[in-house]
Design brief:
Pfam families: DUF5753 (PF19054), HTH_31 (PF13560). The chain has 280 residues and is α/β, with parallel strands linked by helices. The chain has 2 domains: 76 residues, Orthogonal Bundle (434 Repressor (Amino-terminal Domain)); 195 residues, Endonuclease, Chain A. It has a 6-stranded mixed sheet, with helices on both faces. The longest helix has 18 residues. The chain is elongated, with a radius of gyration of 21 Å.
């Protein structure tokens, strides 16, 4: 059973869409039978909005799904009604980013490339504060920092996320928040890279051109095979989740290539430590 309501909602959406298609029903026909608008059913099937357990039961009856299979899906729908911790920060987290945090909270594996800044899961409090100050201003600053630090619990939970990070060497050299903040941040990354679930690769400038020059990314994979992998892209004002298997495969190949082009993990830690000394 998945723990994140975001992942549960995504599971229900996919199951309902597949069951409707298997039953040979169009969105129009199913929506009329369920006494809802076509647009609402479409949004449910795309995980844009949730669905109440009683409506899931009605949909399953329409698609002739009964017994244990139906009860299992209804139980997942009940879980999707729960609140994730990140919803307590909805005043400072945009809805599109709440969706990502909900996926991240359940992910078994995260693979990411960052060109400009340290990934949120590896940021120190001081570094995170300066990043938010520069990119979003002072409003809600401390709550944004608190939410970012709370996200990092996925690295310390009982079954921690397996994190693979490729960092452009520029991240090590750009002085965010001043020398003391950078020295602390780089030392923190060198230390956390010793954890069995965290691998950091530094992509040096000498590697030259590489296949991720146009975009940072996060690839999320889940322990349950029923939850399909996702590629997540974002910018200052929106996020985009790519669920098509071809996209996931393409970004996975890019990540593999970046890891081959980067310094190996041991040399990457040495590079982090050297960069930290330069800021000390």
């Amino acid at each position: 059973m998945t723990a994140s309501p975001t992942v549960r909602r995504r599971r229900i959406a996919r199951e309902l869409r597949q069951l409707r298609e298997r039953a040979g029903m169009t969105l129009d026909v199913a929506a009329r039978q369920l006494d809802m608008s076509k647009s609402n059913l479409s949004r449910i099937e795309n995980a844009q909005i949730g669905i109440k357990p009683r409506d899931v039961r009605a949909a399953l009856a329409l698609y002739a799904v009964t017994g244990a299979d139906a009860e299992a899906l209804i139980e997942i729908a009940r879980g999707a009604q729960q609140r994730g911790w990140w919803q307590n920060y909805s005043d400072v987290l945009p809805e599109w980013f709440e969706f990502y945090v909900g996926l991240e909270a359940e992910a078994a594996t995260l693979r990411t490339y960052e060109a400009e800044s340290v990934p949120g899961l590896l940021q120190t409090e001081a570094y995170a504060r300066e990043i938010y100050r520069r990119t979003a201003g002072e409003e809600g600053l401390e709550r944004k920092v608190a939410a970012r630090l709370r996200r990092q619990e996925v690295l310390r939970r009982e079954s921690p996320v397996q994190l693979s990070v490729v960092l452009n060497e520029a991240v090590l050299l750009r002085p965010v928040g001043g020398a003391a903040v950078m020295a602390e941040q780089l030392t923190h990354m060198a230390r956390i890279a010793q954890s069995p679930n965290v691998t950091i690769y530094v992509l040096p400038f000498t590697a030259g051109a590489h296949p991720a020059m146009s975009t940072p990314y996060v690839i999320l994979q889940f322990a349950d095979a029923a939850d399909a992998s996702v590629v997540y892209l974002d910018n200052l004002t929106m996020g985009l989740a790519l669920e098509d298997a071809g996209h996931v495969r393409g970004y996975s190949l890019v990540h593999e290539e970046l890891c081959h082009m980067a310094l190996d993990p041991a040399d990457s830690v040495a590079r982090l430590e050297a960069a930290s000394r330069n800021f000390a």
